[in-house]
User: What shape does this take?
Amino acid sequence: MVSLTPRAERLLKALIEQYIADGLPVGSRTLVKQAGLEFSPATVRNIMSDLEELGLIRSPHTSAGRVPTERGYRFFVNTLLAVKPLNTEDVASLEDRFLADQDPQQLIESVSGLLSQVTRLAGIVRVPRRAGAGFLQLDFLRLSASRVLVILVTQDGQVMNRVIHPKRPYSPAELQQAANVFNSAYAGRSLEEVRRSLVAALQRDSEDMQNILRSAVEMAHQVFAGEERGESPLFVSGESNLFAFPELSNTEKLRRLFDAFTAKQDLLHLLDQSMVSQGVQIFIGAESGYEALESCSVVTAPYEVDGQIVGTVGVIGPKRMSYDRVISIVDVTARLLSGALSHGQPS
Assistant: This one.
């Protein structure tokens, strides 16, 4: 991360806050007038030129105005942002939505709608997998050089089959060995625990992982990433709120984004990453790793049941979202949901 002078930090903060507010390129005169900076327009222009060289802002066209880059937003979020605690009225309004007599599944599913209403963005919630289902064994059956049938059996007798396409061909002997190693490592653990462990294993440097175990982990992850048919592991609400932002109105951008909402696979993987981290996570543009989200930011936080992380809530919106407010809303919502699910009442 770059280091800025106090004056440059003040100017960058003012520029980003102004751009978040109206979505228009910010010029030096606008900064001096509306941001209350005591610098001269010439000084502002010089500092803006320095910020542009550092890749924190850019000029969208030949005008004198500048807009933040992803790097600029990241510096802003990490260094300059002061997250606003929700006021008592806002917290009370959220608490009213977490009634103790609600069915837990319905409560979880309703959170995406709540987040979309409160933030005027798209709300998302990752629903837990079957509670209490333990992992018994995984078997790999070679169908062809490029197709493998994976059979997952739970301790309560449920069976899930899925055809996957591994990165390279595997012989029947290799598949048997992979299954043996995987089952030895994960048998008896809950499905949720296995899934989180797989995500963590894939995020770590796997050079020290046995080749056969790494292959098993990669293939098994494809199964856990592909939810069972008929279930809704991810709920998205308020997608139409995104139409209000001109930077997302490009037809191709909207098509990719709504394809992601429909297919859900990329979003599920992103939320799974959030579940192995603590607290609020912020993915800005390309940081998500998915082309469909390159014009968006995603703010997520995990929620728990009796101290165990079981899912994720979050918000998707433009990169110029009001991070100070959205972060607080997502964080408080995750905490309230955890309290309601763990104790029957918000905490």
